[in-house]
Amino acid sequence: MKLQTQIPLSPEKHAIDYGSKVLLMGSCFTEQIGEKLAYFKFQQLRNPFGIVFHPIAIEKLITRAINETVFTEDEVFENDGNWYCFEAHSSLTATSAADLVSLLNANLERLHGYLLEASHIILTLGTAWVYRLIDSDSIVANCHKIPQKKFIKELLTVEEISASLARIHVLLSDVNPSASLILTVSPIRHLKDGFVENGRSKAHLIAGVHDMVETYRGSYYFPSYELMMDELRDYRFYGEDMLHPTNTAIEYIWEKFNAVWIADETAALQKEIDSIQKGLQHRPFNSNSEKHQQFLQNLELKIERIKEKIPTIAF
Fold first, then answer.
1. Angle formed by the axes of helices 195-213 and 158-175, to 10°?
2. pLDDT tens string 271-291
3. Contact, 135 vs 105, CB < 8 A?
4. For 118, which DSSP code?
5. What is the pTM of this model?
């Protein structure tokens, strides 16, 4: 009996190894995949401007970074004692305009460097619903709890999504033509928009992504959304909020991503790193015991052997 539909997946040629540099930007699911890459000590930069949900926000940040258009104090604003920027997530905040601008520009410099050097750029799109600030007639990345009456809510069309992603691809091709652009749609449901509206949003994203991928070489689609919807189609794979995937679901999708995009020759090293990570998380009953001291010495030897193989790895 076959009790599960399987999405056919094949390993990609330009796979990620321990010499690769991976840039990840996008929705919450970007964080989850990025955490897996970080756990196994792959070189990666994850959401330098915090979580961003739609392609226009990602495009603005990539464009700004490539053109080295620095942030200025007239692009930040104060709300309830803290300063924010409409192009970044609320996690990037400061108690003064100068401090926030300094933080934003430091992260912009990091993003610029990674865009030039990255071997793989992974963009995860969460929603096609966007908010346009009425005062500036510009689409924002985050509303920062500003009253909704100051915004107009819009649904990006398939054509707008495809065009935005195409502009990103052209920009990247100019500065880093060898990088692989991996696009995926987040399996996290945005039900605050409504059930039907979430379906429309995901449909627009998927259609827009495929329009772009089918047009431009060096861009790829990874079916995170389809894996959740078709292979893990059961509420036991969702958290208590019934929106976010459980750790089991994330692990399942990671294993699929690993099979497609992570080089086979890294498997043994990943296993060693997993063993070290679990050892570092171990909490002994008696930290002064001879047995535990021997355990720590063995763990240190394992770490040194890993560093000899891959000098960039640090625990």
1. 40
2. 999 999 999 998 888 888 888
3. no
4. -
5. 0.94
